[in-house]
Amino acid sequence: xxxxxxxxxxxxxxxxxxxxxxxxxxLRQALAEAPPEERPGLERAMALVESTAAATEAxxxxxxxxxxxxAVGFTGDVTSVAAVRALRKAEPKLxxxxxxQLQKEAVAHPE
Length: 111
Prior knowledge:
The chain is mainly alpha-helical and 111 residues long. It has helices spanning 20-33, 39-53, 57-71, 81-90, 96-108; strands at residues 5-7, 12-15. The longest helix is centred in the middle third of the chain and has 15 residues, at 39-53. The relative contact order is 0.16.
């Protein structure tokens, strides 16, 4: 996820686009038609898609926040004001309120 749609100074909502169900359906179809030598790889891929699909929206937002911190090289205390500054540095259009809310989700959903 390269960015979260909907976050800017006027709008503090987050829209997550998830297509794991589409990917899962395609993998199930491929698995049903696969020769025996391809099945182990497709079964592993299916397990990965299912585990990703099970992630909560808050967990996905927390993962995105951590990726944005990594993008700007932030390695400090994620509960700090510096963490909010780093998030806003990574995403300049992010409002202060949205940055604080996202920081709280990242703290509540550690890796």
